[in-house]
Amino acid sequence: MKPRHQRFLLITAGVAVLAIAGMFVLNAFQSNLVFFFTPTQVSKGEAPQGRAFRVGGMVKEGSLQKDGENVQFVVTDFAHDVPVSYKGMLPDLFKEGKGVVAQGKLSADKQFSASEVLAKHDENYMPPEAKHALDQAEAAKAAQSAKP
After folding, report:
1. Tens of pLDDT along 79-100?
2. Whole-prediction pTM
3. What are phi and psi of 95, to 5 degrees?
4. Looking at domain 36-146, which of 3.40.50.150, 2.40.50.140, 2.102.10.10, 3.40.50.1950 is its CATH number?
5. 44-72: string of b/e by CB count within 10 Å (b at 16+)?
């Protein structure tokens, strides 16, 4: 085989290896990509069925029910609610009336099964997506109450 053909074969093999590596990286990125949705978006059907995503808002007052490790609560953006079930230990800062982000999947009956629950970590912090969603819900609620 001529040196020119060997170089061509080596370059072709290198490009093929890079393409396969790129495919693996993109596949891993796609499978680990988790989107954030508000309770309003979930109630409108914008959240994916059977795929993991995050829902965030406030824990509705009076909605927390504990039965051993099984926990049920409602996440609200003050316009719509999403019932959440979770099995495991809740974060220490998890309380009713406080901000929360839950990651999991939505079932066919609109029950959100969380695999992870995150609570805000100090008095001033809230995830930007959750803050924006709550501000929008509050503005929409104010606009509806202002109509005669």
Report:
1. 899 999 999 988 888 888 888 9
2. 0.67
3. -150, 160
4. 2.40.50.140
5. eeebeeeebbbbbbbbbeeebeeeeeebe
